[in-house]
Structure formats: C-alpha cells, structure tokens
Amino acid sequence: MSKHIIMIGVISLAFSSRLRGQEVQNVPPEDCGMVCQDTQHVTELDLAWAAAGTGSADDMKGRLFTVNIPVLDAEFRAKALADLSNDVRAHRIGRGNLFRRAELILRQVAELQDRSSMTGVELFFYHDPVPAGYLWRGCIMVLSDALSDSLSDAELTGIVAHELGHAYFMGDAVAAKRSKKSSALRVVELKCDAVAIVSLKLLGHDPASFLRALQKIQLLLTRKKLSPRDPNSHPGLSERALFSQRLIQTMAS
Ligand SMILES: [Zn+2]
After folding, report:
1. Residue of 197, 171, 196, 195 lying closest to 184 (CA atoms)
2. Beta bridge partners of 188
3. 142 - beta bridge partners?
4. Which residues, including other chains, have CB under 8 Å from residue 111's CB and lie 6 or more apart?
5. Among residues of the chain, what percentage have pLDDT more than 90?
6. 182 and which of 7, 27, 38, 98 could share a cystine (Cβ 3.0–4.6 Å)?
7. What angle do CA 40, 43, 49 make, to 5 degrees?
C-alpha cells in the first residue's frame, strides 16, 4: 500500500497545477512531439487516437475506461484531504448553488466511469479567483469556484471527466515521469482528453464542449497574466484542438 501511495502522490504533483499555472517538476524536452517506434516515427496524436480507436462512443469507452483504477479506501482519502495545502483547505466551500452543481457533475461523471465505493472520488470545492481543477492523489477532485463559475455544465463536465480519467493511466504516467519521457506524458494527457470527449458524448453533451473549456481556461489565465509552467508535460492547445476535432469526427453517432 505504501508504494501505491507514493506513486499516486507523484501523479498528483505532476497534474495538480495543470490549470493553476504553478511550478511543477521540469521535464527535459528530450523530444518534440514525435515518438520513435522501431524505424517509424509516430506522433503523440497518432498514439492517442490509436488508444481510442474508432467506432461508437461506447466502443471507445471500452478501450479507454480500463479497470485499473487504484483502490483507495476512506482512510486514504482522509489522509489525502489532510495533505492538501493549508491555503486550499482554509477556503473550502460546502454549500451554495455552485457547490451543488459541481457535486452533481462529479457524481454523473464518476458513475459513468464506474467508480465504486472503493475507487470513489470526493469533491473538494473551494474559493480561489484562479480557475483550478485537478485530481488530488487519485481520489479528491479539487475544483475552484472561479473555474466552476466560468464554465457551462457541459464544459465543467468535460474538465472533471479529463481529470478523473487520469486514474486510468497512472501506470503510464508514473513510468513516463521516472524515465523523463515528456512525450509519453503528453500522450497520457491526450488519452485523458479522449476520456473527456467520450464522457461528454455518453452523458448527452456536445463533445466539443471540452475543447471550449480548455480555450476558456487559457483565456482566463492569460487575462490574469498566469501561464501554465509545465508545457513539456502537456500538449499545446492547437494539438489538443486537432486531436479533439478528429476524434469527434471519427466517433460514430
Ligand atoms: Zn490532465
């Protein structure tokens, strides 16, 4: 169990600042969007598209929503909550329309992703003028009120689905971090984008809402003069747009 806890901690550090623009561990830019496989170059987008495959949203769900979500019991969740930074914990919100809306969206996505009581996820909603959303230690969905307030229901659903989707690819992400393969980390991000797009489709939302959410968040961060400081571990917005648009086109209705 302790090994498991450490691995999840590493993942959380890697992704917790995706929307906040905080400092994260630098990964050397040893590649530039291309992954060598034998003698052929395969792009990160190709790898992620291949992981989703073709067919209906249900077909893609079968490939992406694997059963490898770590089992994290109530004791682990309580420890994870206690380990959130004081700054975040001091501003928790547990009531109000925005909180209830975030709770409903999280419940819908968690049910779609077959989160059981042992792989459940708890909402931590808090006040922060910076749009922030991340999955903390695999079991706490941290969302700021600024993020929730800025996005439509569908857009917030897409962000929550992407973040929960990280649980499916923790092994890949840990291996990528250990070997300092930033390209592999970007493929994980794109796979989580695919989880978000498929989730939106299956929940009856416009799958393009996820990309709109990313665009809105980038705009908000720019206005606040904040920029993500972990560009190596995340694809650029243009790559994510290309990935999203083709995946949606590929997805049979
Ligand atoms: Zn992510």
Report:
1. 171
2. none
3. 124, 134
4. none
5. 62
6. 27
7. 115
Q: In the chain, which residues have pLDDT < 50? A: 1-40
- Start-end of H helices in the chain: 2-15, 44-52, 57-64, 74-82, 86-89, 97-112, 145-150, 153-165, 170-178, 182-202, 209-223, 237-250
Is 204 in a helix, a strand, or coil? coil
Cα(38) to centroid(ligand 1), Å: 28
The reported pLDDT for the residue numbered 42 is: 74
Ion ligand 1: residue ranges with CB closer than 5 A: 189, 192
CA of 79 to the centre of ligand 1 (A): 23
Contacts 24+ apart (CB under 8 A), 142-146: 142/16, 142/84, 142/88, 143/102, 145/93, 145/98, 146/220
Q: Which residues of 122-132 are buried (b: 16+ CB within 10 A; e: fewer)?
A: bbbbbebeebb
Contact 139, 120 (CB under 8 A): yes
- Per-residue confidence (pLDDT) for residue 117, from 0 to 100: 63
**CA 188 / ligand 1 centre spacing (Å):** 8
Query: 């893609």: which residue's tokens?
Result: 60
Q: How far is the CA of 151 from the centre of ligand 1 (A)?
A: 17
**Which pair of tokens denotes residue 125?**
């909603």
Orientation angle between helical segments 182-202 and 209-223, nearest 10 degrees: 120
Q: What is the pLDDT of residue 90?
A: 97
Instruction: Tell me the pTM.
Output: 0.82
